[in-house]
Design goal:
With 136 residues, the chain is mainly beta. The protein contains 2 helices and 11 strands, in the order βααββββββββββ.
């Protein structure tokens, strides 16, 4: 039996006010311009804070391996740490058996369906998950 959980939640909702308040005007504009079926990860904490990663394909890999779609160069990140999956307009994050785990909103999770404003922790990196779903 696994010690981690799989969490399923409702469809994307407007970005929470606390998350909106932390965005620069440029970042707010980028989120507003996201197409249907796209999402954005904003690095809020970590060696490259402020970096943005577009999730616009069905599978995006994250890890310390330079061949990862999102390369996070820190020893707290496994070579193949996690994957972001897109199904229609919905996204989920799946831990790839990483050493330090993947956390969503502070909770360890193997697989979690993401909603607008979720915080995803991968090693030292805290990523804000954003879509334009429901924010118009």
């Amino acid at each position: 039996m696994s010690d981690t959980t799989s969490i399923k939640r409702d469809a994307p909702t407007p970005l929470p006010k606390r998350a909106l308040d932390s965005l620069t005007p440029t970042e707010r504009s980028v989120v507003g311009e996201l197409g249907d079926g796209s999402a954005l990860l904003l690095v809020q904490k970590g060696p490259n804070a402020g970096a943005r990663y577009l999730l616009n394909s069905d599978l995006v890999t994250v890890g310390r391996n330079p061949e990862s779609d999102i390369f996070l160069d820190d020893v707290t990140v496994s070579r193949k740490h996690a994957e972001f999956h897109r199904l229609g307009k919905s996204f989920s994050v799946v831990d790839s058996g990483s050493l330090n785990g993947t956390y969503v909103n502070g909770e360890l999770a193997e697989r979690t369906d993401l909603v607008n404003g979720d915080s995803v922790q991968i090693g030292k990196y805290r990523l804000l998950f954003m879509t334009n779903g429901g924010s118009k």
